[in-house]
Write a structure and sequence with these properties.
This protein is an alpha/beta fold. A seven-stranded mixed β-sheet has the order 5-4-17-16-18-19-20, sandwiched between helices. It is globular, with a radius of gyration of 24 Å. Bound molecules: 5'-O-[(S)-ethoxy(hydroxy)phosphoryl]adenosine. The site of 5'-O-[(S)-ethoxy(hydroxy)phosphoryl]adenosine has 22 residues, from helix 13, strand 20, strand 27 and strand 28.
């Protein structure tokens, strides 16, 4: 367990329950606690029919769960459906003229675009035909999307889904090189991007990054034949990057040809792939989490309806980026599956000032709000009194992505929620598709700092290193696992089943040949404590992953990016607690012979990381040290560096190969 987790644990204290107001319960989509019994292990897996029944199927499945290729679970086998149909077409009868997407540009002087379900239907159809007829894409092909937070992103995703094309959206804040790695891994021949978008008042030249991405993919051997460029302002090219003849095309021009044309949604097997979402793990190589159509969509639809408590008349705003799993599941697929009006906001929450979020909420009548502890901490810091100045009214709020400190939770509840909105703290992962632990807002009370119990159908357990169950209320931390498969779970890591099995099942699988799901508990990679009432408190990652502002970064990825600077011999990253971002990476490097440390060099290394991975991965400090503390077998002792970074006792270092260097590093870091 890392020093950070021990730190959390020593501060562990039970919090009081908060009870939701009766008005919320009166309108909640679910108030019958019988759901937990219906979804008990005794009724597993057939109980998940209740989830699948939220969707329209072209053909019902014959097998709810097929375990024959354990642990690659197959859900709703034999069923056929289309994800785009379920998010768009089927709502036209009742909600044709209702807003599906409220697009809020970052510049306040630009008007909000309210895209109705009918308009969404039209734009998705035209885009889908373009993908088929102009790009030659068909079901099963992968296409990389590198799009910012504008409506063209969900429109392109849904257009892919309409034809069974697998979309791989890469967060626009990632560097071109990081995008190129993902193009290569997914073997995409088409890249869909945008010329520019606003961030903190600046129109960023995104097309330049897309060019980098194509170059990086081609250097690895993956040729990109077509780059489709949406224009932030149709008709005007807002980037200075060259337009490559025969490769780059403006989507607004291409679409002229497909105006008002329609294309039938493809009837897809439930088990086919909806999308890949790359995330970080313990090695330098990101993993492509492969999500299914039927299992995933039924799972996120249920979560949106019952955990987010979305009704079609609600205006729902999730402030995440669609480039992360939260945005896929809880801006696009879940909310649209239940006919919500979902808000897509282009920019940063505090632009141009600390009141922006609350003005958006007021203007659009947002009543369900969803964000991360990092954003909550930042909003509290820059404008703790702002929410009171605006006349919005939330009935429901979500927090996701990192542990939330109880005092920050209370600010969220009292000030943002004005003491009346119910809060759900949702614990889950890119891999899991949707929430695993939370509270059902109309049934269970809230507890600040805890992500609640397993949701209906999810049976969490805390295991020690030997695989023994730690009992609820024992007060001991262990590895959070889920006993059973569930439909939202990813199917495997794209092209890497071995890594999938090793990472998530390697430690606790009871028999690698077994096809009984009971032998395959899912290990999430988080340490957690479960209190007597079954509420889970997440302590943090147990692997080499740092959670910066709720974004997952692999320490190995940052380290290998640092090695891109030719002067660097060795690199080690540690996580340091940060008041706003939860954690930030600090980087230690040692130099090759013949190079001398300097501030310029430290900056160069830091820039190299931003260049390879994107700004979010930029280390908060770079320390050039004379040598890394190492074990006698040559392993870098990151634990020792982490203690130094956090001003903690380094413990006994006498067994290291070079104990004297520890004191040298400590003086260097703690004096600066
Ligand atoms: C962390 C984001 C505490 C956890 C949806 C997990 C959380 C990782 C919570 C997944 C929460 C997510 N409380 N920690 N409510 N939600 N985490 O894949 O460490 O980007 O393993 O998915 O975020 O991050 P990912």
């Amino acid at each position: 367990m890392s020093s950070q987790e021990r730190h959390y644990e020593s501060h562990w204290q039970e919090e009081e329950y908060y009870y939701q107001n009766p008005e919320f319960i009166g309108q909640a989509n679910i108030t019958d606690p019988g759901i937990f019994d219906r979804m008990s292990l005794d009724n597993f897996p057939e109980c998940y029919k209740e989830f699948a029944d939220l969707l329209d199927w072209d053909q019902y499945w014959h097998t709810t769960l097929d375990t024959s290729d354990a642990p690659c679970w197959k859900w709703f086998v034999g069923g056929r459906l289309n994800a785009c149909y379920n998010c768009v077409d089927r709502h036209l009868d009742s909600y044709k003229n209702k807003t599906a997407i409220h697009f809020v540009p970052e510049l306040e002087e630009e008007p909000v675009q309210n895209i109705t379900y009918q308009e969404l239907y039209r734009r998705v159809n035209e885009t889908a035909i373009m993908l088929r007829d102009f790009c030659g894409l068909k079901a099963g092909d992968r296409v990389t999307l590198y799009l910012p937070m504008t409506p063209e992103l969900p429109i392109t995703m849904l257009a892919c889904a309409r034809l069974g094309i697998i979309h791989c959206q890469v967060f626009a804040g990632f560097s071109g090189k990081a995008c190129g790695d993902r193009i290569w891994d997914s073997e995409s021949e088409v890249l869909i991007t945008m010329d520019a978008y606003y961030r903190s008042g600046k129109l960023l030249n995104h097309k330049a990054n897309a060019d980098e991405a194509v170059k990086a993919a081609e250097e690895q051997g993956q040729k990109v034949n077509k780059v489709l460029v949406w224009r932030r302002y149709p008709g005007t090219y807002s980037s200075s990057a060259p337009v490559v003849e025969g490769r780059d095309y403006f989507v607004d021009q291409l679409l002229e040809k497909y105006k008002r044309q329609e294309i039938a949604p493809a009837s897809m097997p439930a088990e086919d792939i909806l999308f890949l979402m790359y995330t970080s793990g313990s090695t330098g190589k990101p993993k492509g989490c492969q999500h299914s159509i039927g299992g995933y969509l039924s799972y996120v639809a249920w979560m949106s309806k019952y955990v987010q408590d979305i009704h079609p008349e609600d205006v729902y705003w999730c402030m995440a980026d669609i480039g992360w799993i939260t945005g896929h599941s809880f801006i696009v697929y879940g909310p649209l599956a239940v006919a919500a009006s979902t808000v897509v906001y282009e920019g940063v929450p505090t632009y141009p000032d600390a009141g922006r979020c609350w003005r958006i909420a007021e203007e659009l009548d947002v009543d369900i709000f969803h964000t991360s502890p990092t954003a909550i901490r930042a909003l509290r810091k820059v404008g703790g009194d702002e929410p009171a100045k605006y006349n919005y009214s939330f009935k429901h709020m979500t927090t996701v992505g990192e542990p939330i400190e109880p005092e920050v939770w209370r600010w969220y509840y009292e000030v943002v929620g004005k003491g009346k909105a119910v809060i759900v703290d949702t614990w889950w992962q890119t891999e899991t598709g949707g929430f695993l632990c939370s509270t059902l807002p109309g049934i269970q009370p809230m507890k600040p700092g805890s992500a609640g119990t397993g949701l209906p159908g999810i049976h969490p357990v805390i295991l020690d290193d030997e695989g023994n169950e730690i009992q609820p209320g024992e007060g001991k931390a262990g590895n959070l696992c889920i006993k059973n498969p569930w439909p939202g779970a990813f199917q495997t890591i794209w092209k890497n089943k071995e890594r999938y099995i090793d990472s998530y099942y390697g430690k606790y699988c009871r028999d690698k040949n077994s096809t009984d799901w009971r032998d395959w508990p899912y290990m999430a990679g988080d340490a957690a404590v479960m209190s007597a009432d079954g509420y889970v408190r997440i302590l943090g990652r147990i692997d080499d992953v740092i959670n910066v502002s709720g974004h997952r970064l692999g320490t190995k990825e940052i380290e290998s990016a640092a090695l891109a600077a030719e002067e660097v011999a060795e690199a080690a990253v540690v996580a340091v607690t940060d008041e706003i971002k939860g954690a930030v990476p600090e980087l230690y490097v040692s130099l090759k012979p013949d190079y001398d440390p300097s501030d310029d060099l430290a900056k160069k290394v830091s820039d190299a990381v931003a260049d390879v991975l994107g700004k979010i991965a930029k280390p908060s400090n770079v320390y050039i040290v004379p040598d890394m503390p190492k074990t006698r077998s040559g392993k870098i002792m990151r634990r020792v560096l982490a203690s130094i970074s956090s001003n903690k006792d380094v413990g006994d270092v006498s067994t290291l190969a070079n104990p004297q260097v520890v004191e040298e590093i400590r003086r260097q870091v703690q004096s600066g």
